[in-house]
Task: structure prediction
Amino acid sequence: EPLRGESLYSWLQAYAVRLGVSVGDLYWQMGLEHRHDAGRRLNAQELSPEDVAVISAATGYPTADIQALTFVDYALTTAEIFGPPARLTTLARWHRVAGSQFCPHCLAASGGRWKLQWLLIWTFACTQHHCLLADRCPTCGHRQGTRPLIGPRPPHPTQCDGPVPGRGKRGARCGTDLEQAAVVGLDPGHPALAAQATLSALLDRGVSTWGTYRRHPRPTADVLADIRILGRNILCAVPDKHLDRFVPADLVTEYRRARRHRGIDDHEHPVSAPQWSTGPPIIRAVAISAALQV
Result:
């Protein structure tokens, strides 16, 4: 069965593993038209009603359960920002990271099941295992989930799906065990974990009970927009040496390390808008944690 909070693409990978078939063969057996294009759609959570109906008929799960594994609920939030109809492509630009983040401890505990919220820019930490998320393979540096796995063999959900460096995109997969990826650990009471719990409650239940929103509730979309703008402005305006006024020193240290790794000097203004989706989770951890302190 799908796990709570799992993404559709992850569940279908697990389904293929259980049947001992490739993901492409699974799509074919389900009757999904244009299976290579279906892989792209499912990987991006861009399902049509026809896709949902086909998957429901093939697996025996209700269409509502299938849709719960996609971005359909988040698309309603996007509609509040951009107006109806809220296209999932619009959602991707505003809410999604490039590829998928992951918690190696969650992958190990679940046997390689990937969470839907790992695809969102609003998720940067695992509150269960008290750590920041990873976003790249520790061996090849490849982002995970950037392309559909339409190969001849059953998938390996806990292994890096990136190509072996120097072998081209169609070469052998890297195959590094992502369960062993190093992540930044956090104390159970760390402000970043509190910030993540706050964002998760907002995304899941529309709950915003802090600061001015306690007395003046606002739609979820407005709150998310406020957090993003405020967090980005803090990072652009506050020098690194003063960031510890907003967030703990361990986050600042990791933030500086990540910036230096990308060749950004400590004195440069760090964040342009695209880095929210293409930068490492530490950028959002610092920005969102800081925004929630204001």
Observations:
- The CA atoms of residues 45 and 174 lie 24 Å apart.
- The two ends are 42 Å apart (CA to CA).
- The mean pLDDT is 82.
